[in-house]
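Q: How would the structure tokens look for this protein?
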Amino acid sequence: MVSDMKAWIVNYRLGGKRQYPREVIIEIPGITPKEAGKFLNKKVIWRHPKTGTTIHGKIIKIHGRRGRLIARFRKGLPGQALGTEVEII
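A: Here is the predicted structure in token form.
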């Protein structure tokens, strides 16, 4: 397994009546649902593409049957973060 892997932010975690901006659904390309469990409790870093500010987070659980994961960040992510890359350490 590579030390710095790339993943994509798919969407915020959504509830019935609200949205959780601190928690996002991420997808790692080429990972099967059985392999997704290996990434639990790994650290995640999101970097703003223009300013370079970073927000740190952690992968907390598996989401669905496609091998996507839910990551919880220390601060809420801005809307520009959707569709961008995160690093898994």
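Residues 3 and 89 are 6 Å apart (CA to CA).

The chain is about 0% helix and 50% strand.

Upvote if useful.
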